[in-house]
């Protein structure tokens, strides 16, 4: 990515919104540190993640792969920027100057740009103050690299120098994903289907700091073991951003067949989806989740027309978040590609929504009619839902 | 109870195979190309395996080239023969119901400028010999025909076809994909006019990742894998000694008490076919008697999606293959089933049951009983 990546042994983590959260700031910072630690488990090497006077540093304790670590950090919501940093002992100004000149030669070999040196002297024992250091380093740079010019208003490059017990030096900022650290905004239950939309929906809500668990409706023998594997794989990909999650796998076959037996075929999908929402909500309440998340987008399929959405929505008391509701398919695909779930999502396994789908499913369900159809399920359905909940498999995904 | 009825996909290894694989990994693990004792030791296993498989074909060990399996054997045979003989002509022939590792190679050669004829088959999956005879001309350098079809178990009269080819053009090379036939038939390449013959290890209770190509002495063929010049330069790469040794042992064992094994498999097959035919709404595809392979039965089930039935059987410990790997999203309908004229609506309702020397009458009865129980239930719930 850069020249001389081996110079860097630490990263300064810049965070955006959490900087303004007042008294709760430490909660956000702690969540961010936790998420960074989790994300770095995927990278080879050992790292210390430390909070020092309102800043978060990631310091490598062992050799590491620069690109791999940056890749991991760009998955952590709440990070606004990742600054690869050179750290060295404080051996006085001459040493600092030599190191800066060496750094600029290696990391900014382009050699023709405007700059500003921005020093922060936290260690007041250093004999020069910040302004003096800025001026002296600027002068040294101009002398050593004739292509450089000073611009104190809008420089191309800032050279940040932090004089602490050691000296930190950085100039590059790699953009982070933004958002808020997961775990700072409660928990929600994602209905994960195996398609393209639901992982994107989960990712979007997680980006706002919400912890995610997921529920998948499995319908053996109509859906295969591989379809379930695919959903586990998708949950893993989402967890790279959202952190560890529980995937609740509901065996939905008996409920589906019962609806098939008792209700009009063209209402099968909508009634089935109402039961999915009910079951997801039951798990949410049991596990302390405060909302449901779906990948629904208006009009994409028969069960996602506004009347259908209203009809499935009415069975829930918890809020249902549909972050991709106004997105076109291509918009969703673009995010799926970005977060690397697309390739997995398009593997061709049947999901339980399509196995018995009618040729002409209702697109404008009348809620009264649907409620009346559901009355035909009265005899067994509560018991079946209870069984489905009790026999669910919980897979820890991380 | 468990019933593994997917032996055309792969088989469980013989105990003796496991033993020699472990031994050649842990003790005699040398590289046959090494000059020292460890190398010589390892080379002995390769020689023994070549002798063992050559013996089953009444061939010479020098005619055996070890490969990574059936697919590589087919690729090597077809690409190797087509390229080696491109000056003699660029016309090659195969059938419409070949395995993908033949069919797709022909497709590629067609793109590369070869003229390809695909010969149709009759409703039993047998090659149309008249059409073959008419297709062969003086530019035909290669004919590739499968011995036993992997989906329906149809058996081609390979000796007749071989004689026909050589009579029409003696220079035409005859390649036989015998991956489903080896171990179930006695194959004599010289008598059956076969120049190239592909075999896979794991279909005969040997290891995966190993196979061989029989190349009749004097057959003009060039390698497809280049490198350190192992196997007389025909197939470079360090010998897969555990695989090769394991396959050698499997080959010898599968042809031990051969008649008895075949009889047992035919008995199992007959029982299965009889029981399945009693079930309403089933069609057994192709021939089913001793004029078909002893280990493959293709059955279509009216009104049932093969994948759903497959997973229902799986829930009860019965493992089979779908006749055509099909899902609603990606219809990839089987060329064989279409080729033999299976009705359109049954293409996605077909399963393949395949047996081995390990298959028992008890497993067959269990499977038939489960089918009898499942079919009415599955027919009740279907896509509308």
From TrEMBL, chain A:
EC number: 2.8.1.4
GO terms under cellular component: cytosol
Family annotation (PROSITE patterns): THUMP
GO MF terms held by the record: ATP binding; CCA tRNA nucleotidyltransferase activity; tRNA binding; tRNA-uracil-4 sulfurtransferase activity
Keywords: ATP-binding, Cytoplasm, Nucleotide-binding, RNA-binding, Thiamine biosynthesis, Transferase, tRNA-binding
Major subcellular site: cytoplasm
Residues that, per the record, bind ATP: 191-192, 216-217, 273, 295, 304
Functional pathway: Cofactor biosynthesis; thiamine diphosphate biosynthesis
THUMP domain mapped to chain residues: 67-175
First-level EC class: transferase
tRNA-binding in keyword set: yes
Reactions that this protein is recorded to catalyse: [ThiI sulfur-carrier protein]-S-sulfanyl-L-cysteine + a uridine in tRNA + 2 reduced [2Fe-2S]-[ferredoxin] + ATP + H(+) = [ThiI sulfur-carrier protein]-L-cysteine + a 4-thiouridine in tRNA + 2 oxidized [2Fe-2S]-[ferredoxin] + AMP + diphosphate; [ThiS sulfur-carrier protein]-C-terminal Gly-Gly-AMP + S-sulfanyl-L-cysteinyl-[cysteine desulfurase] + AH2 = [ThiS sulfur-carrier protein]-C-terminal-Gly-aminoethanethioate + L-cysteinyl-[cysteine desulfurase] + A + AMP + 2 H(+)
GO biological process, one term: thiamine biosynthetic process
Locations listed in the record: Cytoplasm
Family: Belongs to the ThiI family.
PANTHER family: TRNA SULFURTRANSFERASE (PTHR43209)
Function (record text): Catalyzes the ATP-dependent transfer of a sulfur to tRNA to produce 4-thiouridine in position 8 of tRNAs, which functions as a near-UV photosensor. Also catalyzes the transfer of sulfur to the sulfur carrier protein ThiS, forming ThiS-thiocarboxylate. This is a step in the synthesis of thiazole, in the thiamine biosynthesis pathway. The sulfur is donated as persulfide by IscS.
UniProt name for this protein: Probable tRNA sulfurtransferase
Organism: Fusibacillus kribbianus
Gene behind the chain: thiI
TrEMBL record, chain B:
InterPro entries (UniProt xref): Aminotrans_V_dom, Aminotrans_V_PyrdxlP_BS, Cysteine_dSase, PyrdxlP-dep_Trfase, PyrdxlP-dep_Trfase_major, PyrdxlP-dep_Trfase_small
Keywords attached to this entry: Iron, Iron-sulfur, Metal-binding, Pyridoxal phosphate
Ranges of residues in domain Aminotransferase class V: 4-365
Presence of the UniProt keyword Cell inner membrane in the record: no
Top-rank taxon: Bacteria
SUPFAM superfamilies: PLP-dependent transferases
Keyword ATP-binding in record: no
Cofactor annotation: pyridoxal 5'-phosphate
GO molecular function: cysteine desulfurase activity; iron-sulfur cluster binding; metal ion binding
Family membership noted in the UniProt record: Belongs to the class-V pyridoxal-phosphate-dependent aminotransferase family. NifS/IscS subfamily.
Name by which UniProt lists this protein: Cysteine desulfurase family protein
Protein source organism: Fusibacillus kribbianus
